[in-house]
């Protein structure tokens, strides 16, 4: 039986990415990302609900995140859900769910900002369209209409997080 574990999110970073370099130089970055939805309640009042997602990116994507992403940036993420379990200090079994991203597209500045991807690239000194941040070395970067950039990453399944 086939199964699919696919997550697609567009949202804003809640803080700057935290990047670590593991043995062998493998980079991993983690950051919270907020997605929001608006709806009307029973009284007809407009309400907004924000969900927070823990995002993990590996290798080339982690290096791109470290260099270019900042709190408030808007980003498109594709990846898969992964749930980790652990015991806390009191011995209670805890669970955390994260999105392991294998594709990331920078959409510009923070929500409500006037910046687009080209302005962000110029401000950071980056040239997104011609650089490759694929950890597999296959050159999986693309430029979406000149206003955003996509990077793909393949994360190993044998790392203990």
> What is the SS-derived class?
mainly beta
β-strand percent reads over 45%
For the biggest sheet, the summary is: 5 strands, mixed, barrel
Q: For this structure, what is the CATH homologous superfamily of the domain at 7-106?
A: Nucleic acid-binding proteins
Biased composition (Low complexity): 120-150
Protein name: Single-stranded DNA-binding protein
Organism: Pontibacter akesuensis
GO cellular component, one term: nucleoid
Care to describe what's here?
The structure is a single chain. With 161 residues, the chain is mainly β. It has a domain at 7-106: Nucleic acid-binding proteins (OB fold (Dihydrolipoamide Acetyltransferase, E2P), Beta Barrel), CATH 2.40.50.140. The chain is built from two helices and eight strands, in the order E-E-E-E-H-E-E-H-E-E. It has helices at 59-68, 117-124, and strands at residues 7-13, 18-21, 27-40, 46-58, 73-87, 93-110, 141-143, 149-152. The protein has a five-stranded mixed beta barrel with strand order 1-3-4-6-5. A hairpin with a 5-residue loop joins strand 2 (18-21) and strand 3 (27-40). The longest helix is centred in the middle third of the chain and has 10 residues, at 59-68. The radius of gyration is 17 Å and the shape is globular. The model is unreliable at 111-149 (pLDDT under 50).
